[in-house]
């Protein structure tokens, strides 16, 4: 496995036809007989493009990116009512702690380091922030 190329597609409509053209060009450059698996984002546009390729080249398989799949699962879990309020509160606490230089500095001194900050596009960080707060709760309460 290796990385071959990247393209700037910000000005392109990234539908399955565009992706099929780009992915197939790479497959043909490498040699279709050398490609056994396609791993991509699991959006429907990628799934459709790779489905056409795997129908054409029967020895190839498509696999959605595991990290992307888990991220989407955590996004959905975060919408469950029993999780949503807790996550929203954690995000507000994180923003409050990190948006003030003096408060942030005081927090670092009290807990002896940093918390894992949540990231709006990486849904696992919501749970990582909660875990880091839980692990440092004694320092916060001192």
UniProtKB/TrEMBL annotation:
Domain (DUF659): residue spans on this chain: 1-93
Xref: InterPro entries: DUF659, RNaseH-like_sf
A Pfam family annotated for this UniProt entry: DUF659
Top-level taxon: Eukaryota
Name of this protein: DUF659 domain-containing protein
Organism for this UniProt entry: Paspalum notatum var. saurae
């Amino acid at each position: 496995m290796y990385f071959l190329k990247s393209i700037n597609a910000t000005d392109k409509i990234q539908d399955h036809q565009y992706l099929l053209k780009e992915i197939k060009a790479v497959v043909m450059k490498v040699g279709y007989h050398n490609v056994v698996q396609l791993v991509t984002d699991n959006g429907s546009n990628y799934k459709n493009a790779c489905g056409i390729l795997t129908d054409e080249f029967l020895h190839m398989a498509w696999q959605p990116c595991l990290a992307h799949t888990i991220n989407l699962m955590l996004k959905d879990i975060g919408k469950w009512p029993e999780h949503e309020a807790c996550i929203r509160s954690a995000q507000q606490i994180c923003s409050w702690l990190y948006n003030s230089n003096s408060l942030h500095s005081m927090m670092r001194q009290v807990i002896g380091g940093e918390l894992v900050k949540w990231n709006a596009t990486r849904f696992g960080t919501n749970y990582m922030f909660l875990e880091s707060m839980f692990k440092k709760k004694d320092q916060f309460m001192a």
